Amino acid sequence: MKRTLVLLIACLLVLSACSPSSTASEVSQDPLPEPSEESQKAVAQEPTTEPVPTQETETEEEIVEDEDAGGVTEQFEIFNPYQAFSEEEMTDLGAADFSGTDQEIAQLIINWQKANMHYIGDPNQQADISHPMRWNFFLPGIYPVSDMVQDRRMADGKIYGLCWDYASIFVAMADYYDLECRVTAYKTLMSDLNPIFQAGAGMSQDEYEAILPRLSDQELDIDYDHISRSARETWSHYRAEVKIGEEWVAFDGAPGVSAEYAAYSYDLVNWDEGYDPELLYGEVVFSEEGLNIPVLAELLISAPVEGYEGIVDDAGNSNRAATMEDLAAGKGLVPYFENIEDIKAFFSTPGGEDLDFDWDEFAEIKMDYEEGTGKLFFFIADALIYMEDELAAEDYVPYYNAFTGSDMTVEDFNEWIK
């Protein structure tokens, strides 16, 4: 049976990275949650030692409409958000007169951060603490370091931030002194280290309201759905590195946090690594081309998005996707419908289209599966996941369960679906 892969979507949430709690007057030195054995194994490889060129500070090439970005029109000319400070900015920061070897200048920048920055890792203490990190990930340059050092001031004049802020401000200063530097990350997610952190993708409505003034300042017209599907969980810890001689040396100014992560392996973070113009600007469509199954599965991990009502499906599940358009945006999980006619109608909802399925055969599979297992069969998820080429059970089952919140097993698949 030939089944068609359908849907174009995207992913994303992010959690505040590298974030032990702190108070307004004192940074907590409490250790971070202990990484799981699996996550420690995942990063047991040797640190990157290969020389990596200094991150470029030039802006991207001129905006090209309807060509290079998958046929979408890009509204914002992205640029490195932590490009070098100007001499005027460095003078204002009291950091324009450092001298010595590269190692000595790098240490002077760390000393400056100790005296002029305040670490906050708790979003409950400072709601906007992760905004520059999160927003620059999917829209680089929307919150540049030059703005951060002005906007994120405490009553005592110190600049508050988390690990990403420390790393990016360090690099902007180091670039001013022509040091060869880069931002690296411990590329493990907080949700992988500790289950108390929610995994997935997306953005709350409150955070979208917070980014709107910046979008407006740049005359950007990007709606909530596109921003939410572009936002994602960022890495658990960021730090700056400087090339001293032939070796990359870490300079991590985040107090307490850096000690917890010092022994882990770090990889280069390109300043535009999270930018995907197709997600940010492309039409949310339901079609027979371009479905990215892993991305949709990641997006739906955090469904339903905050404030989404959706529908109550025939199994009594609430907040399920009301339309194909909502499903593509990751707003709610796949709904269950008892009747094939209702399933057909869902495929024809906004964002969808009529598809040429063998409905009788699917109805038979649905009936056999439900009678044989005692579990519900979410045909919509099955139709979206199943490619023209047969998908192995080990691949199909995790996607199906992520789309539906079900507990299908490999055995179920092999007996009733394959």
Arithmetic mean of pLDDT: 81
Specify the biggest β-sheet. Answer: 4 strands, antiparallel
* Helix content estimate: 25-40%
Kindly report the spatial arrangement of strands forming the biggest sheet: 5-4-3-6
Q: What is the N-to-C succession of helices and strands?
A: HHHEHHEHEHHHEEHEHHHHHHHH
Structural Rg? 24 Å
How many DSSP H or I helices?
A: 18
What is the structural class? alpha+beta
Low-confidence stretches: 1-17, 19-68
Q: How many strands?
A: 6
Distance between the termini: 10 Å
Strand content is: 5-15%
Per the principal axes of the C-alpha atoms, what is the gross shape? elongated
Please give a structural write-up.
With 418 residues, the chain is an alpha+beta fold. The protein is 37% helix and 8% strand. It has 18 helices and six strands. The protein has helices at 37-42, 87-92, 102-116, 131-138, 145-151, 163-176, 190-193, 205-217, 224-230, 257-261, 277-281, 293-301, 324-328, 340-347, 359-373, 379-385, 393-404, 410-417; strands at 117-119, 159-161, 181-189, 235-244, 247-251, 267-268. The strands form two sheets. A four-stranded antiparallel beta sheet has the order 5-4-3-6. A two-stranded parallel ribbon has the order 1-2. Strand 4 and strand 5 form a beta hairpin.
